[in-house]
Amino acid sequence: MPSSTAGITRYFDDYKSKIRFKPGSLIVMLFIVIIIMVILHTYGYAMLGLVR
């Protein structure tokens, strides 16, 4: 007889991460990373002393 879960196996149903972030702090971290990436794409070669 086929199983009632249609072959779907769920492992780690009770797993909870020890690292918790508030949604607001994740958004702030995301914007910080975006700002750093924009700065590096704009001024990265000059800041690192590389010739473009």
Commentary on this structure:
- The chain has 52 residues and is an all-alpha fold.
- It has a domain at 20-52.
- Helices cover 50% and strands 0% of the residues.
- The protein is built from one helix and no strands.
- The chain is elongated, with a radius of gyration of 22 Å.
- The mean pLDDT is 81.
* Beta-strand share of residues: under 5%
* Number of E strands: 0
In terms of quaternary structure, the protein is single chain
Number of helices: 1
Helix content: 40-55%
Written as H for each helix and E for each strand, in order along the chain, the element string is H
- Which parts are unreliable, with pLDDT below 50 for 5 consecutive residues or more? none
Provide the residue-averaged pLDDT: 81
Biggest sheet statistics: none
Outline: elongated
Our Rg estimate from Cα atoms comes to 22 Å
Structural class: mainly alpha
Distance between the termini: 66 Å
Note the topology:
Elements lengths: L22 H26 L4
Concise summary:
By secondary structure, the chain is mainly α.
Structural descriptors:
mainly alpha, 52 residues
